[in-house]
Automatic annotation (TrEMBL):
Coiled coil: none
GO molecular function: acyltransferase activity, transferring groups other than amino-acyl groups
Gene3D superfamilies (UniProt xref): Chloramphenicol acetyltransferase-like domain
Keywords, sorted A to Z: Acyltransferase, Transferase
Tree of life domain: Eukaryota
Cited Pfam families: Transferase
Protein name: Uncharacterized protein
Amino acid sequence: MQPQYPHFEPYNLSPLDHHLPPMHLTFFLTFKPEDTTQALSTLESGLSKLLFSLPFLTGNVARVSQARGVRQLQPAVPALLDQYPMLKVKYHQKIYLPTSPSQSSEANKMSYDDVFIPLPLDHASNELSPAFRLQANVMEDGLILCATMHHTVMDGKGLTNVLEALSLCCQNVHTGARLVPFTTPAEQEAGRKHILEAGLNTKPSTPTQPDVSSKVIKTSVPLIPEVPITRRLVISNDKLGQLRDMCGSFGNDRIELSRNDIFAAVMWLCFMRARESTSPDPTDAKRKSTMMTVSDTRGIMRPALSDNYMGNAYSALITESPLCQNVYANPSPNSPVGQMQDVIDGIKTTDIKSVAQLAIAIRRDRNALDDEYIRTEIADVVHKTDWQPTFLEQCDYGQSSLRKFGLYDMDFGPLMGKISDFDIPDGRLSRIAWDLPARYANAPWELRIGLEPKVMENLRMDPLFRWVEAK
C-alpha cells in the first residue's frame, strides 16, 4: 500500500503546457554515497516531505475535453500508485557507474529504456499518466536516480525546480530544522493564472500580421527510432570564447554574441555538413536549413513569472539559414580548393564567417522574444477551439540548453551528497540535443545528441567540430 498523500483540487494545465503532445522525459542523476542504504532512506524521507508540501506532484495527466483537447492534472489514483509508486528502487548486479562522460557516451551503459526509468516509454499517451516519478537504480558502486516528468506538466527548468525542492527536503531529514517551502501550491497556481490571463487579455496573431523570422514549433512525438544513436560530446569553453572573438571581424558590431550563440551555431553548421555529406542531394542547395532553440520565458514576461514556477514556460524558436551559404559554399576540406583556404589559428576563415552568420541569426531571433511575443503566443492557444498541439513546422535540428540550471550545486544532505553526473540519454528524439548543466564556472560544454550513425560519424570528423572539441 502506498502512503495517503494530501488531496489537491484538479486543475487545467496552462496554455503553455499545451504546446507539447504527451511525452515523458527523464533526468539521470548519479550519486556516490558511502552507504547506499542510508542514502535511500534519506531519499525516501525527503520525497515524503516534498510530496506532502506539493501534492500535485502525485497527480495524473488526463484529457478532460475530447473536443477541445484540454488536459488537466488530477489527484492520484491508488491503483496507479500501486502499479507505479512515487519511488521505485531497483538493484543492478555487476553494473558499474561510467567513470567519465566519454565512457558513458560510448558504452551506453545507462540506456533510456524500461530497465532504468520508472515508467514505460509509451505511458504518457495513456488515459491517465503520472506527472512525476522516481526510480533509484542501485549499482555496484553508486546510485543513479532517474527523475521522470510528464512534459505537459513541467519543462526542464520545472523539473530542476522540483529536484532542488527535493534536495532541500533531503537536507532537512538530517537537520530537523523547520522546513521552509521552496514553493507552494498557491505560488504555482498564481503562475498558471498569470499565463492564462496573459492569453485572454491579448489578441491572437493573424495571417496578415508581420511575423518575426522565428516561428513557434509544435510537433508530434516521434516514434522511437531504430536507427539513431545518442552520444555525449564535450566542447572546449576556451575554444568557444576564442571563436566568438574571431567572429567579431565577420559579424555585426551592434549584436553581442554569447558563447551559447556560438555553440549553437557551431553544432548547427557541423550538423548541416554531416547530414549533407551522408546523403548529398543537389536540390538541397536551394533549400533552407532550420534550427530550433528553446528559451525560458519566466524572466521575460511582464510581470515576470516566479523563477520557482514548475510548469512549462518556454518558447521554441525556429531560425532559418540557406544551405548554400553554409554547406555548398564551403569546399570539402579534402579537396584542392578546400586545402587552399585561408586559415586562422587552425580554423578556416569560411568556417568563421559561417559561424558568425548563423550565430547572429540565432541571437536576433532570441532578442525578438519579448513580453508581447510571448503573450501573443499564449493567446494563439487560448483562443483556439482545439488546444491539441498541431504540427506547424518541422526543424532540421534542435538544441535546448540546461547549462545554467545549477544541478551540480544541489546538496541532498550528508548521506546522499551532491550530484556527481547528469545526463539525458534519450534516443527517441533524433536530431535533438541538450546542452547539459555546467559542472562548474567556465566548465567544458557537454552535449547529449541523437543522430543517425553515419551522420554522427561525419559530425565528429568535421574539422570545425574537432577544433572545438575538448581534448
